[in-house]
Sequence to fold (113 residues):
Amino acid sequence: MGFAAINPWFALALAGVLEIIWASGFKYVGPQRPWISLGVGLAMLASFAFLWVATQRLPIGTAYAIWTGIGAVGAATVGIIAYGEPATAVRLVCIVLIVAGIVGLKLFSGAPA
Fold:
C-alpha cells in the first residue's frame, strides 16, 4: 500500500492534528527537554509529510488553508484549555469563523470526497 492509497482528506486531517501537537509543544521545546523537542520535531516532519500526501490529490490552496486552519483552531483551543489563555467572546467568534472557512473549503473544493 503506497501513499496513493491514503484518502487525501484523511491525510490532511492527520496533518492538521499533528500540526496542533507540534505548535502546542513549542512551549516546552528547549535543550533541557531533548525528548519533548525531538517529539515536536517528529510531529512537525510527519505533519508536513501528510500534508504532502494530501496535496498530491487535493488543490494546494485548499489543502494548505485547511491544514493551517486546523492548526490555528487546535492550537488556540489547546491554549485556552491547557495554558489558560483568554477565551473572550471575540476570540471564540474568530475561531468559529475559521472553522466555517475550513468546512466551506472542504464542501466547495471541487476535489474528490
